[in-house]
Amino acid sequence: MVHGPVELVTSRDLSLRLAEVVAHPTGMLLRIELTARGRSADLARHETRPLDDPDDPSARWSYLAVNVHVDDMEGVADPRHPHSTSKSDAADASEYHSAPHYWISDYPESGTITLTAGWKEIGLLPRTRTITLGPNPSMRPTR
Description:
Elements: E1 6-10, E2 14-24, E3 27-37, H1 39-47, E4 65-70, E5 73-77, E6 79-80, E7 84-88, E8 94-98, E9 101-104, E10 112-119, E11 124-132
Antiparallel strand pairs: 1-2, 2-3, 3-8, 3-9, 4-5, 4-10, 6-9, 7-8, 10-11
């Protein structure tokens, strides 16, 4: 692990954090954790529901959008190994959790990455954070 955890957003209904960055010789793996509660959780479950109902007039979905800037490259990151769960307790308070992984095929020569993450459909406006990772530890010279 190179870095983590970093809190990106913390509020009553939403928390978003970069759980860890794992360096590899050919890139890095980012693991992000999102927890939504209450109305935001209900919206997240609706936005990620199966779209197999032909009578659903709003047959669309959305999910956490992550943009990554590494040195001179920038782009939207596609999740790998997405994992989502949601819970309800007796008080009918709900929680939605997602822990997607993102593979970035380059490790920054500058040692920094800039992440922008948001999901406006559930009330999470885009937030940007620059994170200093330092040199890639998996590329240390051998003696």
